[in-house]
Design a protein that fits this description.
The structure is a single chain. It contains two helices and nine strands. By secondary structure, the protein is an alpha+beta fold. It has one domain (3-116). The strands form four sheets. A three-stranded antiparallel sheet has the order 5-4-6, with no helix packed on it. Strands 1-7 form a two-stranded antiparallel sheet. The chain has a two-stranded antiparallel sheet with strand order 2-3. A hairpin with an 8-residue loop joins strand 4 and strand 5. The longest helix is centred in the C-terminal third of the chain and has 10 residues, at 103-112. It is globular and about 45 Å long. 5% of the residues are buried.
Length: 132
């Protein structure tokens, strides 16, 4: 019962163009306040630098919201994982990517989604954005 204060994480801004949701890295949903009253613009801030960025720049915010636990089921808490991925770069070396959600949580989401009438069919489909 009660509420839970959450801060949102979003798929990494570069991963969303080339990967399905499932293997994306996740970064804080940090925003930059605008001088006018328009919606704050997304500004990517590395997860390991977010605390410092918020302390040093008062125009950067990481909004938090109260979620009513009795009405909305949320996943978590969980720790992000680090995964070794493919051969990249000129030396064709494997790289480690931090701040990924472990496969077990995605599988649990897919298994439990039908009982909550959630459509999660998109989490393993790449939605590339073409540049025009």
């Amino acid at each position: 019962m009660g509420t839970y204060n959450v801060r949102w994480w979003v798929p990494h801004h570069k991963d969303t163009n080339t990967r399905p949701l499932f293997p994306c890295r996740f970064w804080p949903d940090t925003r930059k306040r605008r001088a006018d009253d328009r919606e704050p613009a997304y500004i990517p801030v590395r997860p390991d630098k977010v605390k410092q960025a918020l302390a040093e720049n008062n125009t950067i915010i990481w909004p938090s919201y109260e979620v009513p636990l009795a009405e909305i089921r949320i996943a978590g808490p969980f720790d992000f994982t680090t995964e070794r991925v493919g051969l990249r770069g000129p030396k064709r070396q494997a790289v480690s990517e931090r701040f990924r959600i472990d496969e077990i949580y995605w599988s649990q989401l897919e298994k439990n989604a039908p009982q909550f009438n959630l459509d999660v069919s998109h989490i393993r489909i790449t939605h590339s954005i073409s540049s025009t």
